[in-house]
């Protein structure tokens, strides 16, 4: 089966010469939810920026459902790969929630009732349909993050990539977003430092460290490998022990 996301030997140096990725391999199949973990500066954001062609591979390749991420395919790649950035304000810039969520599909030529239906469907999936005619800047941070997820869902992507989805959310909003993400029938790659969130949501975790993949396995196995965790500066929150938790993915 062709992976939804197929990263092979990806290497990248920033223009200043800093080599951020050294031959990364990552294959994600349809319906998987995968956490991308790793210490600060590991290269996680650099990797994510290659998935929808914001950065171009120095060496190696990235393909989404068999389509190479390259200039000629960027419009289609950006429809297939929905990236939810850490700061929702990077994604919301229109006067109303409706206009923001409809922006991407409208650019694909969708209009009228079909556009309205797409917008409402995406907002319903994140529980924000009541806010459709509100200005995004009047919403709370957690509500703006949900709308940012809806802007991406409205494109009906094949893979949803989330950068730190739980950051700055209160515990109830964090839980509600987890419920939303679990309910979506979409492949998910989630960059996070929130290890309990990774355990709760993602059966599989990949650790990126120093620009290379150093572990790829079940989230439970990764988080309970004390030597691996220590070596790559990953720490569980005080008092949190996966061994004593219900194992959500068994
Ligand atoms: N524009 C840039 N120019 C030069 N080097 C950069 C640039 N952006 C990032 N880097 C470097 O590339 C490396 C990887 O950075 P990246 O942002 O991908 O890490 P990260 O894993 O996402 O970190 P964090 O967890 O802190 O968000 C770091 O050493 C960083 O300093």
Automatic annotation (TrEMBL):
Highest classification ranks of the organism: Bacteria, Bacillati, Actinomycetota, Actinomycetes, Propionibacteriales
Membrane topology: Peripheral membrane protein
Protein purpose: Part of an ABC transporter complex. Responsible for energy coupling to the transport system. Probably part of an ABC transporter complex. Responsible for energy coupling to the transport system.
Keywords (A to Z) from UniProt: ATP-binding, Cell membrane, Membrane, Nucleotide-binding, Translocase, Transport
Gene3D superfamilies: P-loop containing nucleotide triphosphate hydrolases (3.40.50.300)
Top-level division of the source organism's lineage: Bacteria
GO molecular function: ATP binding
Residue span(s) of domain ABC transporter: 5-235
Family named by the database record: Belongs to the ABC transporter superfamily.
Subcellular localization(s) per the UniProt record: Cell membrane
Key word Membrane present: yes
InterPro entries in the cross-refs: AAA+_ATPase (IPR003593), ABC_transporter-like_ATP-bd (IPR003439), ABC_transporter-like_CS (IPR017871), ABC_transpr_CbiO/EcfA_su (IPR015856), Co_trans_ATP-bd (IPR005876), ECF_ABC_transporter_ATP-bd (IPR050095), P-loop_NTPase (IPR027417)
Protein name, per record: ABC transporter ATP-binding protein
Species per Swiss-Prot/TrEMBL record: Nocardioides mangrovi
């Amino acid at each position: 089966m062709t992976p939804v996301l197929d990263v092979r030997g990806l290497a990248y140096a920033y223009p200043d010469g800093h080599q951020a990725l050294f031959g990364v391999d990552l294959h994600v199949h349809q319906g998987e939810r995968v956490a991308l973990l790793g210490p600060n500066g590991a290269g996680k954001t650099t990797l994510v920026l290659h998935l929808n062609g914001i950065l171009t591979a120095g060496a190696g390749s990235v393909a989404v459902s068999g389509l190479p991420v390259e200039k000629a395919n960027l419009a289609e790649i950006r429809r297939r790969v929905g990236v939810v950035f850490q700061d929702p304000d990077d994604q919301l810039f229109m006067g109303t929630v409706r206009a923001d969520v409809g922006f991407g599909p409208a650019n694909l030529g969708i209009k009228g009732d079909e556009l309205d239906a797409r917008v409402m469907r995406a907002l319903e999936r994140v529980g924000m349909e009541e806010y459709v005619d509100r200005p995004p800047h009047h919403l709370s941070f957690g509500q703006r993050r949900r709308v940012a997820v809806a802007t991406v869902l409205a494109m009906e992507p094949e893979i949803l990539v989330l950068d730190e989805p739980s950051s700055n959310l209160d515990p109830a909003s964090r839980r509600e977003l987890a419920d939303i993400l679990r309910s979506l029938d979409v492949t998910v790659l989630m960059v996070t430092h929130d290890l309990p969130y990774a355990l709760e949501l993602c059966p599989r975790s990949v650790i990126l460290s120093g620009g290379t993949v150093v572990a790829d396995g079940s989230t439970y196995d990764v988080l309970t490998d004390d030597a691996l965790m220590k070596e790559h500066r990953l720490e569980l929150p005080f008092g949190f022990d996966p061994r004593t938790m219900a194992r959500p993915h068994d």
